[in-house]
Amino acid sequence: MRPAQLSQILDREFLSAAALQHTPVMLWGPPGVGKSQIVAQVAARHHVPVVDIRLSQMEPSDLRGIPFRMGDHVDWAIPSMLPDAKRHAPSGVLFLDEITSAAPSVSAAAYQLILDRRLGDYQVPDGWAIFAAGNRLGDRGVTYAMPAPLANRFSHYELDVSLDDWADWAYRNEIDSRIVAFLRFKPELLFNFDPLKNAAGEMAFPSPRSWEFAHRAVQKFGEQTDLLRGSLIACVGQVAGIECAAFIDSLDRLPDLDAICTGQCVDVPTEIDLQYAVAAALASRARMLKNKPDAKVVWGHILNYAQSFPQREMGVMLVSDIHRGIGKDLFTVPQFANWANTVSELMFYE
């Protein structure tokens, strides 16, 4: 399932907790695809805390609590990490990350917590949703097969990688547009994880998470070509790092983006990689102008330029990326109708 779709499901599951309609959710996927980040984003949108419990680092007693004598019987001290309406908040997200890396004895201790929302006398507050995440057995991490009794306590979703969803996230989080452009040009390198190579000692590989590291590398070493190449390889692996460094090195031939944004006549580059770079840079600029006084004027100039690409699909990609960021405001720009007419055949028939 695409990240954008999964975010909507988790939003609904969170809201359903207060209505006692919540079903615990298990997120499956290889490392680096953004499982933990999607959960964090859901909590941030609803302005609630996340209690992140890593079962892989625990013993069964850490979850159940410590027994102590009370007169002629034994009671249990409830772990302070478990959600508490007074100490944490009336609502929130209990996140059991890396649950498939927990020893079977620890995951067994979580059965009652996940299904019955309680452990002994402890009760998960009604406003708290329970989400979990883990890697699959084929990912060759430290992973145990999920026992059937535990699996039956969750609804299960496998997270797919989507370049459109990642690009939308990247623009919103101000990831360098050169990274976005490169992945638009080489979409197969957004995620390329081979468990066999990883097991053989090849540590770095391209993933949504490691491309964020690559963005940081560009910020730190973008002016030092000799260091940039090595730092990108360190983040995303040999093949992707070399290709990304070469792509960035070629961008000194980009047209004048300021001239495009002011409505001057600027030729579209003939090289396809430069076209991707121009489209990504313009999409980033357009999205940053939202709610600015001159936004519609600049958007109009960018829409005019979008009609100039030899391949109409490039213009569609550019305008789609802008629309994901600014929404219906784009439809109020006069030049939008002209652009839509030029691609109507592509949109409706191809």
Count, helices: 17
User: Stretches where pLDDT falls below 50 for ≥5 residues?
Assistant: none
Beta-strand fraction estimate: 5-15%
Question: Quick one: overall form?
Answer: elongated
Strand neighbour order, sheet with most strands: 2-5-8-1-9
Helix content: 40-55%
CATH class of the largest domain: Alpha Beta
The CATH superfamily of the largest domain turns out to be: P-loop containing nucleotide triphosphate hydrolases
The N- and C-terminal alpha carbons lie at a distance of 25 Å
Secondary structure category: alpha/beta
- Helix and strand string, N-terminal first? HEHEHEEEHHEEEHEHHHHHHHHHHH
Describe the overall structure:
The mean pLDDT is 89. It is built from 17 helices and nine strands. By secondary structure, it is an alpha/beta fold. It folds into three domains: 3-158, Rossmann fold (3-Layer(aba) Sandwich); 174-251, no CATH class; 254-350. The chain starts with a helix and ends with a helix. It has helices at residues 3-18, 35-45, 60-64, 104-109, 111-115, 148-151, 163-172, 177-185, 195-199, 208-221, 225-236, 238-249, 257-261, 272-288, 295-306, 312-326, 334-349; strands spanning 25-28, 50-54, 66-70, 73-77, 91-97, 118-119, 122-123, 127-134, 155-158. A five-stranded parallel beta sheet has the order 2-5-8-1-9.
